Structure prediction request, 255 residues.
Amino acid sequence: MRRAQLLSIACCMAALSTPAAAADIRVLATGVYASSLRDLAAPFERQTGDHIVLTITNAGGVLAKLAAHEDADVVMTASAGVDTLVARDDVRAETKVEVARMRLGAAVKSGTALPDLTGEAPLRAALLAAPAVAYIDPKGGGTSGAYFDGMLARLGVADAVHAKAVLCATGADVAAAVASGRAALGLTQASELLDVPGLAFAGFLPEAVNAITPYAAAVTTRTRNPREALSFIAFVTGPTGSDRLKKAGWDVGPR
Prediction:
């Protein structure tokens, strides 16, 4: 988190009343955050006495849940998604903080030879060789689905991969498809493929065809716990959270 963002959060927190008791902080996040937030919930709870209630969905699900006025205190999704929520008055613009950036990666089932991802030609060969390829459904509301369709077209393998695609709603579904053997190769945000039982992370996609997506967090306009929500965002973007994010493959900028 940049210094200005830290100061902004501190000012927001100072302006809010002190809570009378421990709070349930409802965090609505996309799957790219899932493993990190699950690991960070316990140390945050020990430090504050508050309790994290985590809901994981895809980017489209975040927008839909808030449009349906589902309860949430913190939203964590792509930065562009947060901007959409600001425009809809679902989150507070002044609380938006960039968390980190994520790249796309690939994985195979544990014990399987890792594909060569050193360039466009090796990636094209890996996609053509795989009997089935799992990735996010472009029509399902996930952040990376539409991007993958464009990437496949650029590589000249769209028709071949579409014929054997295992389309998934979330990155967790991509991981499950590969671990179960339904797909030989899985593509999604890298953090959703790292340290997953039954998977071997093959690496990030080649830089020429990769996408670096900035992700952000913000406090909702309907929260009943604004101070605690800001506290959780500050924890995730602080030293403990940043270390965990780096282990999950995130590009964490200077704080």
Observations:
- The mean pLDDT is 92.
- Residues 34-48 form the longest helix (15 residues).
